[in-house]
Amino acid sequence: MLVVMHSHATPEQIAQVIAAIQGMSLTAHPLPGATRTAIGITGNLSAVDPNALAGLPGVLELLRVTKPYKLASREMHEADTYVRLPQTTIGPGTFTLIAGPCSVENEEMILRTADFLVSQGVRLMRAGAFKPRSSPYAFQGLAHAGLEILAKARARTGIGIVTELMDTENADAVEEAADVIQIGTRNMQNFSLLRRVARSSRPVLLKRGMSATLEEWLMAAEYVMAGNNFNVILCERGVRTFSDHSRNTLDLSVIPPVKHLSHLPILVDPSHGTGKRDYVPAMARAALAAGADGLLIEIHPEPDRALSDGAQSLDFPGFARLLESLRRLADPLGVVIN
Amino acid sequence: MLVVMHSHATPEQIAQVIAAIQGMSLTAHPLPGATRTAIGITGNLSAVDPNALAGLPGVLELLRVTKPYKLASREMHEADTYVRLPQTTIGPGTFTLIAGPCSVENEEMILRTADFLVSQGVRLMRAGAFKPRSSPYAFQGLAHAGLEILAKARARTGIGIVTELMDTENADAVEEAADVIQIGTRNMQNFSLLRRVARSSRPVLLKRGMSATLEEWLMAAEYVMAGNNFNVILCERGVRTFSDHSRNTLDLSVIPPVKHLSHLPILVDPSHGTGKRDYVPAMARAALAAGADGLLIEIHPEPDRALSDGAQSLDFPGFARLLESLRRLADPLGVVIN
Amino acid sequence: MLVVMHSHATPEQIAQVIAAIQGMSLTAHPLPGATRTAIGITGNLSAVDPNALAGLPGVLELLRVTKPYKLASREMHEADTYVRLPQTTIGPGTFTLIAGPCSVENEEMILRTADFLVSQGVRLMRAGAFKPRSSPYAFQGLAHAGLEILAKARARTGIGIVTELMDTENADAVEEAADVIQIGTRNMQNFSLLRRVARSSRPVLLKRGMSATLEEWLMAAEYVMAGNNFNVILCERGVRTFSDHSRNTLDLSVIPPVKHLSHLPILVDPSHGTGKRDYVPAMARAALAAGADGLLIEIHPEPDRALSDGAQSLDFPGFARLLESLRRLADPLGVVIN
Amino acid sequence: MLVVMHSHATPEQIAQVIAAIQGMSLTAHPLPGATRTAIGITGNLSAVDPNALAGLPGVLELLRVTKPYKLASREMHEADTYVRLPQTTIGPGTFTLIAGPCSVENEEMILRTADFLVSQGVRLMRAGAFKPRSSPYAFQGLAHAGLEILAKARARTGIGIVTELMDTENADAVEEAADVIQIGTRNMQNFSLLRRVARSSRPVLLKRGMSATLEEWLMAAEYVMAGNNFNVILCERGVRTFSDHSRNTLDLSVIPPVKHLSHLPILVDPSHGTGKRDYVPAMARAALAAGADGLLIEIHPEPDRALSDGAQSLDFPGFARLLESLRRLADPLGVVIN
After folding, report:
1. Whole-model pTM?
2. What backbone torsions phi and psi does residue C82 show, to the nearest 5 degrees?
3. Touching C: which chains, 3+ CB pairs < 8 A?
4. How many CB pairs below 8 A link B and D?
5. pLDDT tens digits for A58-103?
6. Where in chain A is the domain with CATH 3.20.20.70?
7. d(CA B178, CA B154)
8. What architecture is the C83-337 domain classified under in CATH?
């Protein structure tokens, strides 16, 4: 951390800041410049809250030098993380598709979807039994009955299940039914929930919060990893900006920095990212070309009758066409569609 | 809802949309215009998901006419809501101060703060026993020991307690210790938590999410009210934008629309809104002038030694000066500081 | 346009709005619903400012149905626009590269760059003689001397020139030197400048404003087209959001809606979009996969000595490697790199 | 500036960065820490572009310590700037109202407005002769005929004129007609225009760009001041965010940092900030309480017939009521309404 002093800061004020730093058992490195003094701080910064220094007289601002995440950081752990599942492995070199309906609506549509995905060579299915809906009056999911349907689909087809956990009460049940536990956008900083899945043996798919910076997102991953669950899969799903041409602003530009700063795999959800079926295939291909490790994508046997997110779901023929175009692109990029 | 058709939409496409609307047991009102046809929809829209219509051929976009919130809406409930507490009442005509440290650090500082607030005529104290921190390595609060300290402060001074609930596990304990249960920014759309406090007898202070639209915020309030807890207090605490001169962008301009669209009281948190002690008093006065019903504000006996949020906390003399300036302003505005 | 009335609006208020609409020589279509009345408006909306209706008693809000752009709209002009230049044609089916340094620094580096680009098969070079810099103390470009250097490069190598025009004073000179006139991000809504290039015979490359919605961007294109210059090339270069992992947030998700709503070609600038050399190639490939019609990209013979934007410029070997990877991707996508 | 090295940076990479800094005639101060080395840079940073260092091997990021603005900075110029006009003085201690219609529509409405303002004790009138409109088909202002009407209003009533300049071509004419030249939001970074008004003898009212950071805004002021025009008045008018409850997000929280970092006066435009007449008075009062030096506010004799911005314009009685409430608030705040 660097404390930047006001250009008019007095020697006494500078001395006071240095003393305060030392009082926190940290080391101060004064760095006098032409117009102002800056003071570097080294030592164990996580043990104290040096932000309090911002209130001292003569201090202009604090600049952080060290990133607060450790386990999620590539500086600490250079090798890419591969998340191994019974059905497949997620990480660089492959491009993993996780497809399925927004929510479990009934057994028939889930089995139809699972059969279709298996026929296409897709090994993981997404579908929500617990649905976070912005309206209390909207369809909230089938809950435990939905989990049972998902378990049946897995038993019958061998497909892996990715499904969302919204609260600690249902953690055991979701762990039982899911191969990957999804933490939704609105819960990215639900720290109690993160601490719970940190104790799980299941990998965690961690969606980026609606307005989360990359650092906050990696800190959320850090919560899971700090509890000894190192199998975290990041998922970009669009962030909130002024831009109104799509449901969210899909931030594909986060992929290279994620790969630079972290060793964790990253998927992209072009369905929530765009909110509009017609825009999904182009963004899916762009995600592949940008270096993502896979997709989380919504498909539905009859999108126009879906109970939720129909407008952004592909139908089966549309998904098959997308898959084919992804396969053609994968080869020159040196990755395998999975 | 209004379905806007493409200017080249065929009569068959228009007929198909009308049929789909009727298939949802809704009524379609075609509205032919010079360049395109729009189709109004009336009926019980909450029972179905008309967004699926967006995927039909020839549809350009959907425009929603009706607001999705009901209980939180002033159209449904014209009279202002007053939230009555043992210590005071929150709502128009008064300007209620809720002050205290970010977190309960120890008994001594809580009792000192409570005594100070009582001496200033302030009737409600804020302080967190459970702290949502973006880093798993940062101070996470004293938890149940913190709640006990708050209970002791209330018992000794009569001051009302506002404290945050982060998860359903601790709901009973927080309900026991708190006069008002605070739901934090990161949990505004933690729907499981909202459903839990909807069953509580305590009023709920609902902070606005980091990037929540007004509609999403009122829908979160609707979750609480739909469970029969009508005592919801909104709290604006700054939103996330590109702007980097302060920790968040305090959106005081949300106050008039809140008052227009809803009957619920609204407080402002200038401490999180600015992140910097020196900027807090001006924003506190602006909140009063803008029509807010009160403040949630951080003070600390020794801000430069605070375990969290020290940079944005006022010390006691600073708070006393602010209070005096608020009292001078309140009179010409026709409100009473409480 | 649709006028949404308050649920408590009186019949008199509804009648007053209808009368006001008719007073603007427009037609009102009342649409009574279960909870409120909406009133559709048809007629020539551009002749009046119907926003004034928002102030009438009983009006809740106005919803616009018609898009305000006409010439830029695909509804009005279904066929894709191809911008024909002496050196190449920009539009669907090809992926056009426009590469070069941020600014013209001296003759030697421009000629080196032009020679290199020609050797790579690239037909258009970008370089700024007039530079919009956020600091008055930063290098502002070589101005007319810079244009002369660009003219020399074109004369010697045949390469086409894309360069920025910042003000009407220098319009004649830039027109003389450039094959394509670039309008920068900060000038997207400099309407006097747009009206000037609308009278030019040169195509216009119109960068998206820092926080422009798609509609505002297409309206800026409309300014140029309304003056009879139909050769407009859009260029996405990153927008401003809360996100801080890159210089701007490159909004690739705007490409499908641009193609849906407009017939104009769209390029992507991954250099300004990311601000960091290492992130440029992945975003360049993603732009191709997302359906863009080309790239505007910064390269420099010695990026670490560049007078501006060095951190985001590729060196020549880096660009050659990128070009090769784009060529491999182009084939399965059915486009030709140009 | 501080160069933060990667934790794995080699001694050679550190030496290369130090050499590069010295090659720019700057001084390098290595600051070794527990996990990484940072390197402070001192010297004349404006002469070179140290951003190029970001591309060197082993560099993690650059952190700027020094602010790039000088003349606009309070560190350089501690005393508040007062902008003196023939009619009044703008600066701390007074709260100056600048009111009037969005655009000059005809002579009659301008004279009526001027007479009304004079009768209320208001000394400055705003009205646009040149209007930046997002649509080329919307009313663009009366241009020179509008300036003549404004000149007549000034001659007859003595009221001061604030009007917008959109391009250098009309600079002489606007200078002639205006007491204060307004630079609009969309032109905040039109550097050619800023350099032109920097040579003017008229004060400049500089509106904040739609998504301008405080630093960019002060740098735009620096352009004007660097040309020797020190009479710059800042004006906050709402920024662009995800928030959709108002036309823009009025950022009152920028006022304390402006006062902290700069000596320039700052006004607030609650009309564009909210876009809705009913929300204007609350935001006007909040601006006064937040420490602004005045308002730029839209009024119209018949808002519902306005050619532009009618929905956000107050009528005369509404303005008179607002003025009275501001006068009551001003006294306890220790300022004088002007």
Report:
1. 0.94
2. -110, 125
3. A, B, D
4. 129
5. 888 888 777 889 999 998 899 999 999 999 999 999 999 999 999 9
6. 83-337
7. 9
8. Alpha-Beta Barrel (3.20)
